Amino acid sequence: MRLILLLFLNILRKVYSFNIDISSPTYKVGPPNSHFGFSVAEHFNGNNPILLIGAPKANSTQPGTISAGAIYSCPLNSYFRFKSNINNKWCSQAYVEYQNKERYKLPPRTKDDRSITIDSKGSDYQLLGASLSSSGKVNGRAIACAPLKRYHEGVSYTDGSCYLLGTDLTLTSIIHNCNGGRLSKQERHNSYGACMQGFSSSIDEEVILTGTIGAKAWTGGVHATFVDRSDDVFAINIDRTTLGFEERENGIRENKLFEKGDYVGYSVKHGRFGFWYEDKKNFTIVSGSTRHNQSGSVVFFPFMSIQDQSYEEMLPTNDGFMLKGRQIGSGFGYSIEVLDLNNDGFDDLIVGAPFEFHIDEKGNEYHGAVYVFFSNGKFQSRDQNDLVFRKPIILRGKEKYSQYGISITKLGNLDRDEYGYEDFAVGAPFDDNGAGVIYVYFGSKDKKSFNIKPAQIIQASKLGISPKQNPLKSCGFSLSGGSDIDNNGYPDLLVGCVLSDTVVALRSKPIINIITDHFMINSSLNIDGGVNCPRGSKTCFEFTTILSMNPSYSKEKLVDYTKDVFICQLETLPYQLGIDKRAKIYGSKDGYSLTWECGKNLNSQSQRKVHKLFISKDNTDWLNPLKLKFSVYIKDQPKTTLPDEGEPLINLNNYPILNKYNSTHEVVISFNKRCGDDDKCESDLELSATFLDISQDKKGTFVTRVGEKDSINIKFVVKNKGERAYESRMYLQYNHDELDVPQLDSTKKLSSVNLESYENNVTVFSLGNPIEPGKVITFHVIFKLVKSEGQRTSNILNFKANVNSTSIEKNDKDNVWEEELEIIKEAELELSGVSSPQMNYFGTTIDSLSDAELKYEEDVGPMVKHQYTVTNRGPFYVRDLSVEFDWPFRIDHEDDENNYALYLLEMPTIIEADKSIRHCLVEDSYDYINPQKLIIDPSLTVENSVKQKGRSKREVEQGKMFNIPDIKITTKGFLGSKGIQPIEATDSNGSPIMIVDVDCKNSYVMCFKVKCHFNYIESESSAQIEFRARLWNRTFIDHYTNVEYVQISSSGRIIVKPEQGVVDDQSNNFFTISTHAYPDRPKLQTQELPIFPIILAIFVGLMILGLIILICWKCGFFKRKRAGDGPLLHKAELQYEREMWHEMH
Question: Global pTM?
Answer without folding.
Answer: 0.65
